Amino acid sequence: EVQLLESGGALVQSGGSLRLSCVASGFSFSNYGMSWVRQAPGKGLEWVSAVSGGGFHAYYAGSVAGRFAISRDNSRNTLYLELNNLRADDTAVYYCARDQVWGSSWSFDYWGQGTLVTVPS
Amino acid sequence: QSALTQPPSASGSPGQSVTISCTGTSSDVGGYPYVSWYQQHPGKAPKLIIYEVSERPSGVPDRFSGSKSGNTASLTVSGLQADDEADYYCSSYAGNNRMYFGSGTTVTVL
Known about the structure:
The complex is a heterodimer.
Chain A: E1 3-7, E2 18-25, E3 34-39, E4 45-51, E5 58-60, E6 68-73, E7 78-83, E8 92-99, E9 108-111, E10 115-117
Antiparallel strand pairs in A: 1-2, 2-7, 3-4, 3-8, 4-5, 6-7, 8-9, 8-10
Chain B: E1 9-12, E2 18-23, E3 35-40, E4 47-50, E5 64-69, E6 72-77, E7 86-93, E8 99-101, E9 105-109
Parallel strand pairs in B: 1-9
Antiparallel strand pairs in B: 2-6, 3-4, 3-7, 5-6, 7-8, 7-9
C-alpha cells in the first residue's frame, strides 16, 4: 500500500525557516517524481515544487522560487522541502504527492495527509 | 500565480448529472493534453479522479468523465450520489515545468 507521511509543520515567525519531510512507503520511491502542493486555510490548491526521481531536476512555482528548496534522499525514501524567508502568505497545509509519470501527465496519484505551516502576520 | 477559472459552486439532485468547467488559456489548458481533476472532501487530501483530460485511474467509477474543448476542460459527474458532495479542482500543465490548479468548485448534492 502506497503511503506518504508528512511532518515538520510548525508555527514560525515571519522571515524564519523550516524543513518539511515526507516519508514514502509501498512503492519504489526513486522511480517516481514527487511534488509539494499547498493549500491555505479555506483556499484552493497551489502547486509549489517538483523533483525528479533521481533528484537532479527541480522546479518551482514563481511564488516560492528563490525561497524554497526541494530535495530527496532515496536511501531514506524521504522527500524534503526547505522553506526560507517565510511570509504570512506561506501559511498553508503542505501536501506531498506522487507524480504518476515524471515529465508528462503532471498528475498526482497519491497524496499524504498534509502538515500545517503557520506564519503569523 | 494564475489559477484556472472554475465556477465557485454547482449542484444537482441524486441521480442527476453535474458538469464543472475549467477555463484557462492556450498556454495551459488549450496547449497540452495534461488536464487533471481532483476530488477533495473536507479535511481530507485531494484524490485524483481524471488525468490527461479524460483518463480515469483504476478504481474511479465511470460516473466521472472528463473532456476538453479549446481552452476549457470539463468534468461531468453522472448519477450523483451523496458522497460526491465535495470540492473539485482541475489542474493543467502550463509549460516551462509549471502547473496550475483551478480555483475550485464546491459540488452540493441537493
